[in-house]
Amino acid sequence: MRRGLLALCCMATMVLAGCVGPSSATWGDGSGVEVISSTNENGTQYTVKTGLSGSSTTHTVESVGCDVADGGALIEGSGEPFTFTGYLAASTFYQNHNSAMGARDLDFGVTTAVAIQSMSFSEAAGTTDGNGARIDVKEWTMPLSPETGAGSVDLDEVDRDSDSRWFVLGLIPSTEHILDGMMALGEWHQPVSIQGYMVDSIGEGQNNPNGYSKQWHAARSDCSMTVGDTNREDLYVIVTGLTLEGATVSATGESDDEWVQGDVPILGRSGFIMLFLVGGVGGSVGAFILSKGMVMRAASNDMKTLIGSEGMKKAASVKTDAKAAKKAGMESPSERQARLDKEQAKERKQESASTPPPRTNAKDDNPMGGFDLDSVLASSVPTSPRGGGPSQRKSSVVATEAAQSMDRMNEAPSTSASSLPPSMSRRSSSPPTGRASSPPSAAPVSNSPPIRRRKSVKKEEDTASSQPEEPAQQPTTYEDEEEFSDFSF
């Protein structure tokens, strides 16, 4: 587990190497830095336009080069660029400058500041990491005046009695490619050689004590800058190129070994990406296969412990038989049920597709099923209270033969009762005096109420009756409400 974690950390370090770097100023666009060179009768001049101070400022400086013919003498406006070579101990990058903290004038055009211990390139390349100078940077607000603390070297304490010589440089890029290439200086403790021109301010009242001065700076015949008696040289440099171990940064960006941000030594960017894909993706696939094999092996051992060798053989034979049966076309109950369900679903889908949709009827919208109650009430046939003929209205209700027969049977007793004389329908108000003296009495009158006739409607349409309707007969009334106690005659 620990080895796997270590390998994962190493892979993450490889991914981050060369891809993550410091942030620096942009080129142009009003908020960054832009340097324009021009040549006139006085030589080459540089116009530095910068917005790193928060507002746009412009500084015109004259270049100071190396006169090779004069043994490395300093020459204004022409000559070859100087080289500042040594061991890169510290660096910082600027995205803006704070004038309240002391930045001024040409400080606003500096995008990178470095501290380089002066020595030959080969000597710097042979310095073992950890044995070189280490600088503890506390604050680096002003490019040429870093504040350092306890370390192997304190730049604030470097003087004539120091054992080491140092360059503290404020770097101004001459082209956009140089600005991008300066990101290589973000890696400390490496050999480096910076090519560029010193600068001298132009104009009255613009004195630059850290710029060009013949008595302050001197170069060798090969144009490599030397360090004076104070063991520290502070100056601005218009950078025209960088030399690193195994790579270079040119003003045009077209060098054969041009350094590009994200580049990895030896492998390069393409080689690193291929290594990452092969090693990362292939390693992950291999690790998955290996872990799966280990899990399967452990499961097999546990199974062998539980069921024994004979059980393992039987399980293997069952597995072989199942494969053979499946190959022969046999299927398990679950597979068969799934197949049947699928077929049934397919059949239902085909039937639903072939069956035409049911026709819609406007009458179906009526919840009474097509029965119009208003039409029935308007065309119903009223009958007379005593069974008179139907009126001239039409009826949509049909009466059966049984209903008509029942109506005729009910009408017969009612007619008989109505034909009796009135004297038979009345009872005497005087009580009976005796059997001998009582006059012959009429037959007893039935006390049953008159039978109500049910309405009947003829099946077919009838015409209006020409006979007048009979008046409704009044129900039989009695003069007294006394109860009969003697029904004898």
Please give a structural write-up:
With 489 residues, the chain is α+β, with helices and mostly antiparallel strands. Among the domains are: 22-262, no CATH class; 264-319. The protein contains 7 helices and 12 strands. It has helices spanning 2-16, 121-125, 176-181, 268-328, 333-354, 373-379, 401-418, and strands at residues 33-40, 43-50, 57-67, 73-76, 82-93, 112-118, 137-139, 147-148, 166-173, 190-201, 232-244, 247-249. The strands form 2 sheets. Strands 5-6-9-11-10 form a 5-stranded mixed β-barrel. A two-stranded antiparallel sheet has the order 7-8. Strand 2 and strand 3 form a beta hairpin. The longest helix has 61 residues, at 268-328. The radius of gyration is 61 Å and the shape is elongated. It starts with a helix and ends in a 71-residue tail after the last helix. Residues 203-207, 383-396, 422-446, 455-468 and 477-482 have low confidence and may be disordered.
